[in-house]
Amino acid sequence: MDYEVITRFHGVGQGLFVSGEILALPEDRHDREDGSRRSFSWVYDCGTSSGQQLLQERILEYWGTRPSKILSAGCGCSTVGDLFGRFGSRRDGGKSNIINLLMISHFDQDHISGIVALVKGRRVDLLVLPYLHTFEKLTLLAILGEGDQSEVARFIEDPATYLRQTADADVGQVLYVLGQDDDDREPLDGERFGLRRGWEPPANRDALDPDFEAANRPWGANANQAKYLRSGTGIKLGRLWQFAPYNDSRLQARAQPSFTRQAKTLADDFQRRKTANEKKSVLRDLKDLYDATFGASAIARNIISLFVLGETNSIKHNEWQMLLTAIEETSRFRRLQCMPHIHPEQQPSAFSLLLCGDGYLNNIDRIQALESALGADRLQSLTLFQVMHHGARSNWCPELVQHITPEYALFSSDPNHMGLGHPHPEVVRSFWDRSCQRIDKSRSVQFLVEGHL
């Protein structure tokens, strides 16, 4: 079977918007030329703090509805016209109006501010989020300064209903990824979990190909019924591809047993309160407790993070090659660069990527926990690595490059945003021999993999 894997890092500045498609190509070349292919589309985060107009342009680009600008090619590639035509856009030009898989790492605005616009009037087959206990949801609202009736609160509490009411979006299934400490506890917060070793589309789904699950179809009759996935287990697409989400529940909210006990007591108190003022008072108490325990720094504010590993399954005779294209845009022109991928001497049998959001790999314990969940060998042979939190030093440690050795390190940031200076120089230097790629307000990057198995 021939296949293509497309991964796009959209230039949104201080934020993150990553999308991709996995395509199974017909054996008959004539059918390929007619555009016949089976595809699966996915998105990881969609937000920025560098301006919503910029993000809106990228969303329109993704759906194939953005007007073209003057083009200036900096590439000798014979297919430059075709590359320009499809850069940043879905292969189907947005005709299907479906995102098969939407993954959200956490609930900061620079990662979710474009979600409503992205899915407006469209369908999401599967929505994947990190699981939060009730006390963690309330803690998050407290430290964000949000009330329990705010937009963020409505989204966290019931994302499918929120997107249906706010964006007229159809969400087929919600999948919560448990933290390491949640795996064997049943029930949690009074909820009974249907735990799985992995996740696959329902067996009664009409598959077009036994090796590749058909896209653009409902996930079954259990619309909006939440399912739960153990951290590090797979969301599988036949024998071609799998995603393995990892929920780092070792962050601050669960790190102190005394805080957890007091926070759960306050959460119970919150649910007994009747008036808005009473609830606000409990949220203030929860925020004061959190700040007194952990402080008010940026790292203290991150209480959840969903990593996602994606890879072609390691199968014998999996042959693949990759083309990296980058587009740089100003108010006057768009310039395309084509960079053929140079394989290492020992090419991995799988193309793989690791998306980290604003996650923390700033000490050996967290790195080893990630290795335990996803596999140290996988982290040593990554093709693409999205560096955590725009390349912030607080999310990183010097030892990281001994454990994660990608071919490409990708930094999505706005260096001039609020004087933060992301990515920080020492983080970039540590990946200097890993082919660093910047994604910012003017530059987007796309990887096209063509393979056969």
Could you explain how this protein is built, in words?
Helix 6 crosses helix 10, helix 7 (151-157) packs across helix 8 (159-167) and helix 9 runs antiparallel to helix 10 (276-294). This protein has 453 residues and is an alpha/beta fold. The chain is built from 15 helices and 19 strands. The strands form two sheets. The protein has a twelve-stranded mixed sheet. It has one domain (2-345, 433-452).
The value of Rg in angstroms is 22 Å
Strand order of the largest sheet: 4-14-13-19-1-2-3-5-6-7-9-8
Helix content: 25-40%
| Strand-residue proportion | 25-35%
Q: Which regions contain 5 or more consecutive residues with pLDDT less than 50?
A: 68-81, 184-224
> Count of DSSP helices?
15
- End-to-end separation in angstroms reads 5 Å
Structural class of the helix and strand makeup?
Answer: alpha/beta
Largest sheet: 12 strands, mixed
The backbone outline, from C-alpha atoms, is globular
Mean pLDDT: 77
Number of domains: 1
InterPro entries: Competence_DNA_uptake (IPR052159), RibonucZ/Hydroxyglut_hydro (IPR036866)
Protein name: Metallo-beta-lactamase domain-containing protein
